[in-house]
Write a structure and sequence with these properties.
Shape: extended
Oligomer: single chain
Order of helices and strands: HEEEEEEE
Radius of gyration: 21 Å
Distance between the termini: 75 Å
Strand content: 25-35%
Number of helices: 1
Strand order of the largest sheet: 4-5-6-7
Mean pLDDT: 75
Structural class: alpha+beta
Helix content: 10-25%
Number of strands: 7
């Protein structure tokens, strides 16, 4: 019985000391961007369900009224998200002509 207890104790301690795995494809000088402000936030997807509309901004799934930085989501369209600070995040950037 004490062997099982000591094994469980070792496994629990090892999981707490483990560091998250680093993505081997990231450049050495990569710094993750926080979703704390709207300037660096990127709209990656919009989900339309019968119940509600959702926007994936950064790695977060947000809906109407949720906050991102100091702004709140006021509208979710088919390809954009409007924020209370007047900014609009677009799903696809427009391609400029030469």
């Amino acid at each position: 019985m004490w062997r099982i207890s000591s094994l469980l104790l070792c496994l629990c301690g090892a999981s707490q000391a483990a560091e998250p795995l680093r993505d081997p494809t990231q450049p050495a000088d990569f710094r993750a961007q926080a979703v704390g402000n709207t300037q660096g936030s990127r709209l990656t997807s919009i989900i339309n369900s019968p119940e509600a509309k959702y926007a994936v901004i950064g790695n977060r799934v947000l809906t109407l009224g949720d906050s991102i930085g100091n702004a709140r989501i006021t509208a979710i369209g088919s390809d954009y998200v409007s924020l209370s600070d007047g900014k609009t995040l677009r799903l696809f950037q427009a391609i400029t002509e030469r």
